[in-house]
Design a protein that fits this description.
heterodimer, A: about 375 residues, alpha/beta, Peroxisomal Thiolase, Chain A, domain 1, ten-stranded mixed sheet, 10 strands, about 35% helix, B: about 150 residues, mainly beta, five-stranded antiparallel sheet, three-stranded antiparallel sheet
Chain lengths: ~375, ~150
């Protein structure tokens, strides 16, 4: 038994995307609440219908959300462990609750507000632990500095170049130009890219995602109930999370075996996800690939089987991932690199809009959409949605 | 223009912490000995040291003196500040060092005191020690260039 096709996303709500800190004086709870109310309204449901919450990265305070939104009772409240790796998997957590009878209408919500703490330097603010000392002593002050070490190894093993990373950033920026929700709407040239400061070589400024504020919620319910609601149901074909021990703590460990060090750590989840959905990479029409760093987009394209291992750079540079004419258009909203960063929930939103057929950069005839959660320590996650 | 010399990261973002599993590594560091944690039952190395051997689940460890040499497995040059307090430390080189005679284990560290444009994957390096850095003695790595 799997969750395949037993649930659907029926509601979608989002706040605007704000540059880091500019969502103030709204509070984080307020942003979360706005996205939930908008998602319920989109679905044609009310707060009285909600009986579950499924989060990632620790989630939010369910009791506080119930108190302020007037949600009378919940039967399910759970979060995936880890960080942004769970964004695509939270929908699977909701589906698991619904399929097992633990809840009927589950809210999945993600949000961030970076006024007080930038995510770019977040590892420098982790509590000192015996494990953290091994990377903090080396000055690995942010995730982009850590993933730079994987990016360099990928270059060494496979001949990947900064030009390939530039093509990821330019490809995704091109998609943001026509998106009114996107924070970065100026074209990015190769010259701009190579003039940008090298924050952690080989990563320059444009290889890093945006630091933004915002909240996005989706409503998940049973496929049966979804048929009677306001929006056309977006089928949940599969959602998987987890990962291999050889990936483990990944960037916090750096002792992954050589064959997976220069990867996104997604290969186990990708295998399980495709098996659950009963589809192959070639069946996917549009993919929202977690783009905290351009180099990790290349490694995910490899782990999800769109190209061979080591071929991700030339694959992107060939135009294969372009919205116009690409075999697998990616990050059609402009991604986290150029549209907005909400810990992966922007990717869930864009996949829902693609399957509904209402995306700004709509892939004609899109029937299956892949969403990935952030490459990070286990669990990482993936999601396949369908028409 | 001559290449800049690799410096050390900013100590202000570092706070020490140890426990019974990592303390022997840092105690040896004070004596300028680079040691590796080897399972006393099956010999497998692990880094950083954790409470169980993932292969045989033994909790017994031998702390083995290593030669203090290795090669750069991967590296990154940090050339721009992302927070106040980093500027005086730039550039510095973060690196993953594959340690000689320690199984397949690697140490997250820095390459220091050589021109940053001389750092490459596969560069042979040797340990040097930064005493009293943020309350601990920290291993870093440098190379003899010819």
């Amino acid at each position: 038994m799997t969750i395949r096709d037993k649930t659907a996303i029926v509601g979608l709500g989002a706040t605007p995307y704000y540059k880091r800190g500019q969502s103030a004086p709204q509070t984080l709870d307020e942003l979360v609440g706005k996205s939930i109310l908008a998602a319920l309204d989109d679905a044609g449901l009310g707060v009285g219908d909600v009986d579950g919450f499924a989060y990632f990265a620790g989630g939010f305070d369910t009791g506080m959300l119930m108190e302020t939104l007037g949600i009378p009772e919940v039967r399910f409240s759970a979060s995936l462990t880890g960080t942004g790796g769970g964004s695509a998997g939270a929908v699977g957590l909701a589906a698991a609750a619904i399929v097992s009878g633990m809840a009927n209408v589950v809210v999945c919500v993600g949000a961030n507000q970076q006024g007080a703490q930038r995510f770019g330097s977040i590892t420098s603010r982790y509590d000192a632990t015996p494990g953290n000392v091994f990377f903090s002593a080396a000055g690995l002050v942010g995730p982009g500095h850590m993933f730079a070490l994987l990016a360099r190894r990928h270059m060494h093993l496979y001949g990947t170049t900064r030009d390939h990373y530039a093509d990821v950033a330019i490809n995704i920026r091109n998609n943001a130009l026509s998106n009114p929700n996107a924070l970065m709407r100026k074209p990015l040239t190769r010259e701009d890219y190579f003039k940008a400061p090298l924050l952690a070589d080989p990563h320059c400024l444009y290889d890093f995602c945006l630091e933004s504020d915002g909240a996005i919620a989706v409503i998940v319910t049973s496929a049966e109930r979804a048929r009677d609601l306001r929006q056309p149901p977006v089928r949940v074909l599969a959602s998987a999370h987890g990962g291999a021990r050889d990936w483990g703590r990944s960037i916090y460990w750096m002792n992954m075996p050589d064959e997976i060090f220069a990867s996104s750590g997604h290969s186990a989840v990708a295998r399980n996800l495709y098996a659950m959905a009963q589809v192959n990479p070639s069946d996917i029409d549009v993919a929202q690939i977690y783009d905290h760093f351009s180099s990790q987009v290349i490694m995910q394209l490899e782990d999800y089987g769109f190209c061979e291992r080591g071929e991700g750079g030339p694959f992107v540079s060939s135009g294969a991932t372009a919205f116009q004419g690409g075999q697998i258009p990616i990050n059609t909203d402009g991604g986290q690199l150029s549209c907005g960063y909400v810990w992966g929930m922007t990717h869930v939103r864009e996949a829902v809009e693609q399957i509904r057929g209402v995306a700004v950069n709509q892939v004609v005839g899109a029937e299956l959409a892949l969403v990935t959660g952030g490459p990070s320590n286990v669990p990482v996650s993936g999601l396949i949605l369908g028409k | 223009m001559p290449s800049l010399i690799a410096k050390r990261p900013a100590v202000k973002f570092f706070n020490p912490a140890t426990d019974k599993w990592t303390q022997p590594f840092w105690d040896a560091a004070v004596q300028h000995r680079l040691v590796g944690a080897s399972c006393a039952k099956c010999g497998a190395f692990r880094m950083p040291p954790t409470p169980f051997c993932p292969h045989c689940h033994s909790q017994l460890l031998n702390w083995v003196d290593l030669p203090g040499t290795g090669v750069v497995y991967s590296y990154s040059i940090v050339a721009s500040a992302i927070m106040p307090g980093m500027d005086d430390c730039l550039p510095y080189v973060t690196a993953v060092i594959a340690l000689d005679e320690a199984g397949d284990t690697r140490l997250i560290s820095n390459v220091v005191d050589i021109p940053v444009d001389q750092v490459r994957v596969g560069l042979k390096v040797r340990v040097i020690w930064d005493d009293d850095w943020g309350g601990m003695t920290i291993p870093r790595f440098t190379a003899e260039l010819r």
